[in-house]
């Protein structure tokens, strides 16, 4: 049972939504941290970095992530049934082993079919030793988790420091990099990833009804975007905005054409806060979704998503007719539009361009159960028959997010998983498709996504059908398909599921004391 005193506060959640990170600390004893770090040191220096196997190689690491502080923080952001992803890594930063300034700013390679502004994923950077700026902690750039482009000097570089047990909980897409270790000591950081299993229905932190307050230090204002994430995390639709402090739409409309990007972005944000009453500005606002400044373009997309049917119509038009970049920005904005966008999104599943079909499936998934039975039927058709693997994968993931309320989703996912595993090859065929080649760490992308979707929905379906598919998935050539299948069976916890797991673990069991340097 999770102790509620370790759940995050409204203020911490608002910082996570707006800045994309929180610095926390485990109060485990220092000798324990030192003992684990010594073990990690031995493994890295005697055997090399074990990659995903760092946890079974040093099992005491699990105690870091089982503490109330970590469990409370992750439950607050990802819901109480979050899952520790099988990809994890120990980042080893040697003294002076990098070019001046440290590593390159980047986002991690993602695991879903698309990146999500809403926190379906999160990471923890965990330090096993006292961490100072000289040791080269991983630098983060607050507030940049929603940006595809790196904002450079416009952003703030933050180097989190603290005693052993210091951790940084980050939005999965926050820009970050290794900083230069100028000390004489090795620096160790454990990077573990976590995934949300279902959309929130209510706040999962110590919610006290706080309004969204913008903390200092954000690189730009994105009030409609932040409100979308905040409302989604609370399991609520947007509340009516107090317009008393907002300027009139005509003034804001004029500022949309200002030379200064910050002025344009602020005007777009305010128009979104006015909502449907500013619907007459929707056509002009739509032009800004293609703005050369990404912060302004995002504000325009989310503002349109806050304007009811007129805003949704403009975003759907942009998804159908705009460039691929504009279509993607429009998809993020359409998350905010809710049910008003669903009929148009179903129509876009028949678009000639695979990019737009995939984006339509993505947004329908983000709508969750509210997408409705017609959307489920259309997504099932896309998952079976679309000629693009990326579209099929988006449809499979969307079905897992919508859930099995119709009774049709789980059997479809089970069939998809079984077929994907049966048709596996040793390696994916060569392809000129950038999507196929992009996530080469996932060998069976459809099987991977179907297994994840069954992890999210399997308990709501016919148990025998689900177990049969998951048992086959344990034989997959893709390590992540196997990992998701094992976890999905664990979630079922029926005698039949446990029996399958026991047979699997007898062969898969890892001995942490057996390695290339051990005698037996």
CATH top level class name of the largest domain:
Mainly Beta
Strand content: 5-15%
Sheet with the most strands: spatial strand order: 1-5-3-7-2
- Can you tell me the CATH topology of the largest domain? Jelly Rolls
Largest sheet: 5 strands, antiparallel
The percent of residues in helical segments reads 40-55%
What is the straight-line distance between the termini? Answer: 40 Å
The stretches of 5 or more residues where confidence is low (pLDDT under 50) are none
Overall average residue pLDDT? 93
Number-wise, the strands total 7
Q: What overall form do the CA principal axes indicate?
A: globular
CATH superfamily of the largest domain: q2cbj1_9rhob like domain
Q: SSE order, as H and E? A: HEHHHHEEEEEEHHHHHHHHHHHHHHHHH
Task: Break the fold down into its secondary structure elements and pairings.
Blueprint: H1 10-19, E1 21-25, H2 30-47, H3 54-57, H4 61-65, H5 68-78, E2 83-93, E3 121-127, E4 138-140, E5 166-171, E6 176-178, E7 187-195, H6 223-234, H7 249-255, H8 261-274, H9 282-287, H10 294-305, H11 308-321, H12 324-337, H13 342-348, H14 354-367, H15 372-385, H16 389-402, H17 409-422, H18 434-438, H19 445-457, H20 463-473, H21 479-492, H22 495-508
Antiparallel strand pairs: 1-5, 2-7, 3-5, 3-7, 4-6
How would you characterize this protein structure?
The chain is an alpha+beta fold and 520 residues long. It has 3 domains: 4-195, q2cbj1_9rhob like domain (Jelly Rolls, Sandwich); 221-238 and 246-348, Leucine-rich Repeat Variant (Alpha Horseshoe); 363-520, Alpha Horseshoe (Leucine-rich Repeat Variant), CATH 1.25.10.10. It has helices at 10-19, 30-47, 54-57, 61-65, 68-78, 223-234, 249-255, 261-274, 282-287, 294-305, 308-321, 324-337, 342-348, 354-367, 372-385, 389-402, 409-422, 434-438, 445-457, 463-473, 479-492, 495-508, and strands spanning 21-25, 83-93, 121-127, 138-140, 166-171, 176-178, 187-195. The strands form 2 sheets. Strands 1-5-3-7-2 form a 5-stranded antiparallel sheet. Strands 4-6 form a two-stranded antiparallel sheet. Helix 20 (463-473) runs antiparallel to helix 21 (479-492). The longest helix is centred in the N-terminal third of the chain and has 18 residues, at 30-47. The model has no long low-confidence stretch (mean pLDDT 93).
